[in-house]
């Protein structure tokens, strides 16, 4: 069957990086499925452009399994799955265990269960890809957000395991970005410190992420790798 007919699923694509990638993929003529948690105006715009948008909350197993059911009812095959959904959650004192549980659920349990249950959809496409969105912080750990960091490290480990398990038909890789886009509330001091962490010293925007995504989708000889996208942070 012609793989171009099968859609690319991007989770958490209601804003920022995921939304940008969904828009670029549509421009490139790909069919796109997005998951979103909150209904935002951007979701309606993606629908108008032909994307299928499915509501999903990956905070627990029930929410993840219900998304998988809805997905399977609506599509017969997938070209790729991009696990982008993420929470940049702080571990507030007294709430650490709940934060850890939520981060585990969105960064590890959701990709794990979606990969397990939806690899049969990917098997119908050639080529077929799973792409996990990790974080460059995994390389050195995080004193401020250990739970976020650990759950993204777990996701990178899943990359290795699923790459071995699903080869040769499905390639499985990660992208590990450092700063791509600031959040609205980031103050000048935070911005200056974040920019100073990399040798290239810029806020690159989501375009560089899309280039990396495209590279992994188009390259037939990469699996089980993590593509670092960090402006040279490891050199400082
Ligand atoms: N932006 C950066 O500079 C940067 C740096 C390093 C790594 N990354 C990684 O790159 C990816 C995209 O980053 P971003 O900044 O665009 O992320 P973002 O703005 O935080 O968006 C992530 C999306 O995930 C969805 N989401 C969060 N928790 C969810 C849950 N429990 N169930 C379902 N969906 C959930 C959110 O949906 P709703 O909005 O609908 O709630 C949100 O739209 C993430 O994986 C992030 O960790 C980004």
Characterization of the model:
By secondary structure, this protein is α/β, with parallel strands linked by helices. Helices cover 44% and strands 14% of the residues. The chain is built from 7 helices and 7 strands. A 7-stranded parallel β-sheet has the order 3-2-1-4-5-6-7, sandwiched between helices. It is globular and about 50 Å long. The structure holds NADP nicotinamide-adenine-dinucleotide phosphate. The site of NADP nicotinamide-adenine-dinucleotide phosphate has 26 residues, from helix 1.
Summarize this structure as a short list of keywords or feature phrases.
7-stranded parallel beta sheet, 236 residues, alpha/beta, 7 helices, binds NADP nicotinamide-adenine-dinucleotide phosphate
Low-confidence stretches: none
Individual helix count: 7
The major β-sheet equals: 7 strands, parallel
Q: Which percent range describes the beta-strand content? A: 5-15%
What is the arithmetic mean of pLDDT? 97
Give the strand tally. Answer: 7
Estimated radius of gyration: 17 Å
Class per helix and strand makeup: alpha/beta
The helix content is 40-55%
Q: Report strand order across the widest sheet.
A: 3-2-1-4-5-6-7
Bound ligands, named by name, code or SMILES: NADP nicotinamide-adenine-dinucleotide phosphate
Output the helix-strand order: EHEHEHEHEHEHHE
Question: Could you give the topology of this structure?
Answer:
Elements: E1 8-10, H1 16-27, E2 32-36, H2 41-48, E3 52-55, H3 61-74, E4 80-83, H4 96-123, E5 128-133, H5 146-166, E6 170-177, H6 188-196, H7 207-218, E7 226-229
Parallel strand pairs: 1-2, 1-4, 2-3, 4-5, 5-6, 6-7
